[in-house]
Amino acid sequence: MAGFADLNVPQGPDKKGLQSLLEAAARLGYSAVALNHVIDFKEKKQEIAKPVSPSELFPSLPIVQGTSKQLKVLTRLTLVVSDPSHCNLLRSTSSNIRLYDIIAVFPKTEKLFHIACTTLDVDLVCINVTEKLPFYFRRPPVNMAIDRGIYFELLYTPAIKDSTMRRYTISNAISLMQICKGKNIVISSAAERPLELRGPYDVANLGLLFGLSESEAKAAVSTNCRATILHGETRKSACGVVYTVKKLRKVEEEETLPACKKAKTQA
């Protein structure tokens, strides 16, 4: 069986706090976590930096509870998109984007949600859980995302912090479940402090409140997370092939141009 994973641990500047979060995750039985770097284009124009290697951040990683294995730490990039032009970056073959293990998109409008589900090369689509959704989920884009192997992410920490956000979280989650029928759901924490983390079985129980069945809720913190990671690995290797092909074509063109000029001169 796939181990448990939390695919959303915010990557803040406080290394000590981040180390405490990782230790808490390993103690609770998670075998993998993803450090999430968020870029919101609405705030200001931001460059996408290379992901920081976990080995550079932490001298040693904690051992997962009940095993002899170290916690696996992945890198994740989340782009908050509020305008269609923001999606162009994801369509490019940016070398820095390709270095992240997981790419997620947080669409703010129905149009952008449709684009994310149907055309963008991402691994996760984030669902807003802190306010009422400004649109209704529709079956065609959701089904297209499922067919493409893209997963939908729900966060549970806002539901723990605030009663109003708890209502929005449950309401928005149930709206999504009515369309996706519990398929391709990932539940993550976005915990900023160790106290906000919950064990995987507790998170699975929260999944029941979101409208998931028992098996679907368990998959949302285990097998679906593993599938998301594998989707990211496939995307990275596919991007590498595209990038290599483009470089080869460029080299071939550069070699062909002098030959063509020489032929014209001789004629």
TrEMBL record:
Q: What is its main location?
A: nucleus
Alphabetized, the UniProt keywords read:
Acetylation, Nucleus, Phosphoprotein, rRNA processing, tRNA processing
Q: Please provide an example of a Pfam family that matches this protein in its UniProt record.
A: RNase_P_p30
Localization per Swiss-Prot or TrEMBL:
Nucleus, Nucleolus
What's a single GO MF annotation on this record? RNA binding
Keyword Oxidoreductase attributed: no
Show the GO cellular component annotation of the record. Answer: nucleolar ribonuclease P complex
Entry's Gene Ontology BP terms = rRNA processing; tRNA processing
- SUBUNIT field: Component of nuclear RNase P and RNase MRP ribonucleoproteins. RNase P consists of a catalytic RNA moiety and about 10 protein subunits; POP1, POP4, POP5, POP7, RPP14, RPP21, RPP25, RPP30, RPP38 and RPP40. Within the RNase P complex, POP1, POP7 and RPP25 form the 'finger' subcomplex, POP5, RPP14, RPP40 and homodimeric RPP30 form the 'palm' subcomplex, and RPP21, POP4 and RPP38 form the 'wrist' subcomplex. All subunits of the RNase P complex interact with the catalytic RNA. Several subunits of RNase P are also part of the RNase MRP complex.
The entry's function note states: Component of ribonuclease P, a ribonucleoprotein complex that generates mature tRNA molecules by cleaving their 5'-ends. Also a component of the MRP ribonuclease complex, which cleaves pre-rRNA sequences.
Q: Which family does it belong to?
A: Belongs to the eukaryotic/archaeal RNase P protein component 3 family.
Q: What is this protein called?
A: Ribonuclease P protein subunit p30
Source species: Anser cygnoides (Swan goose)
Q: Which gene encodes it?
A: RPP30
